[in-house]
Amino acid sequence: MALSTEGSVSTAQAPARGSATVVARNIKVRYRVASTDAADMRSLPFARRVLLRAIGQRPKVTVDALRGVSFVARSGESIGILGRNGSGKSTLLRVIAGLETPRSGSVQARSNPVLLGVNAALVPDLPGERNVRLGCLAMGLSKRETEEVLPDVLELAGIGKAIYRPMKTYSSGMASRLRFAIAAAARPDILLIDEALSTGDAAFKERSERAMTKLRENAGTVFIVNHAAQVIEELCSRALWLMDGELIGDGPGPEIAHDYRWWSWNIAKEEHSKADDLLAEYREKWSPTPPDFQPPLPRAVTLRHAHTQL
Ligand SMILES: Nc1ncnc2c1ncn2[C@@H]1O[C@H](COP(=O)(O)OP(=O)(O)OP(=O)(O)O)[C@@H](O)[C@H]1O
After folding, report:
1. Other C-beta atoms lying within 10 Å of the C-beta of residue 10
2. Would you say the CB of residue 62 lies under 6 angstroms from ligand 1?
3. Where are the coiled-coil regions (predicted)?
4. Other Cβ atoms closer than 10 A to 260
5. What sign has the CA pseudo-torsion 85, 89, 95, 101?
């Protein structure tokens, strides 16, 4: 089962493993944000400074959240997105999901990507099991399909009797588990997961790993953002390493996650010069080769964010 471009469920045969599912070309995202840094105010021309002070405004600074990120994701891949706080991971997921428009570049996706937690339209006042039904229907399953997958969703979420209680009474971990279980049940072709998998206990971890394997076997592509590099080391066949909005590494998940952890550990221990040496070595080792965008994606592909380069 795969989500069609309209977000409804189609029963078209799963495409061959290894075919392109998401093609990202030179994505750039820039924010303009107000800054209280006195240095930013001082850097402005005198007249502008006077004007801003008079109207009580702060100077705006530019944040380049993504600086030309390109990659081709393929069916059957689980792709971890790694990087320190503010490196652009969530922004990249939002762009892939179509929730954010880049200032330049484009993303093509074979079908509608499902961003976990957003597409499942859950209602806090309703009990978990009612939300499971709602979520499955919202993700395009029919009523019959929803009833069929219900036991699997409840088993995967594994939150016991809490499933009969209103979702607003759930801990954030319980709610994340339920959302993941719903998203996995709908078997989207392209699933985007932001942080949800670090909240479970060992049993949930094992069940979620099995669910991910099923998704990949279905020739789908799963993207995972997680601060715990270990999660990516264990779950992802491939990893993208972002730093200050730049894609500095693209390669096998376990190896990149291992190197990322070692680099982060040295930073945490304030071994800055060692961390710098490691970073230079890893940049070279995992430097993303410019993706080969040929042959083009099949004609059926949705064109998202069609933008000309600035
Ligand atoms: N809506 C926004 N307005 C202004 N700046 C933003 C906005 N969203 C993100 N940013 C900035 O863009 C950069 C990338 O943010 P993003 O949330 O993508 O990073 P991240 O790697 O997911 O971070 P974290 O690991 O802390 O969740 C950061 O500098 C952030 O401050």
Report:
1. 14
2. no
3. none
4. 23
5. positive
Q: Is the CB of 88 under 6 A from ligand 1?
A: yes
Tell whether domain 16-29+65-113+189-310 is in CATH 3.40.50.11270: no
Which atom of ligand 1 lies nearest, measured to the CA of 225?
22
The DSSP output letter for 289 is P
Phi-psi domain of 55 (left: phi exceeds 0; alpha: psi -120 through 50; beta: other): alpha
Q: Tell me the per-residue pLDDT of 143-173, one tens digit each, with 9 for 90 and over.
A: 998 999 889 888 888 888 999 999 899 887 7
Every domain of the chain and the residues it spans? 16-29+65-113+189-310, 117-187
**Which tokens is 298 given?**
């099949």
Query: Counting atoms of ligand 1 from 1, which one is nearest the CA of 195?
Result: 27
Phi-psi region of 305 (alpha: psi -120 to 50; beta: other; left: phi over 0): left
- The interface predicted TM-score (ipTM) is 0.96
